[in-house]
Amino acid sequence: MSYCAGVERRRLYRDSDRAVLGGVCAGLSRYFGMNLKVTRFLCVIAFLCAFPFALIAYLAAMFVIPASSSKVYDEEIRNELHRDEIRKERLREEILRAKPTVGEVRERYKEMDARLAKIEKYVTSSRYELDEKLRRL
After folding, report:
1. How far apart are CA 86 and CA 65, in angstroms?
2. CA–CA gap between residue 110 and residue 1 (Å, rounded)
């Protein structure tokens, strides 16, 4: 099970298929769902603004983030989506099983109608008036 309901589990990989220098930007763009050109542009801006730190971070990312082909990554996503579809189908089946039939609903309304008739009979009786007077004492 996932660590939190509704949170998608993704893994960060360097994309070796679309790599220019190690595939870090390609992996980041795939992970965050961004355009690859935008990610590379932001990386160039980071290199221009803080070259030593950006270079160290980029090299560290090349060694720390595992490399993977986008085909493997896409297969992983497909498997996760397939598991989600299976979960949704099971949930749909449970909901359909939990829905009451027309006969059950009709029976519930008959029971509620009978209880309501008893309450009306009690409230309109002299016994109710006597009970109210006793409660006020």
Report:
1. 31
2. 43
Is the whole model's pTM more than 0.90, yes or no? Answer: no
Residue 66 · residue 28 · CB < 8 Å: no
CA distance 97 to 106: 18
- CA 108-111-117 angle, to 5 degrees, is 140
Structure tokens at 84: 């989600």
In the chain, the DSSP E strands lie at: 14-15, 67-68
Distance CA 22, CA 99 (A): 54
Q: Give yes or no for a contact between 72 and 18, defined as CB atoms under 8 angstroms apart.
A: no
31-68 pLDDT per residue, tens: 888 899 999 999 999 999 998 999 999 999 999 988 87
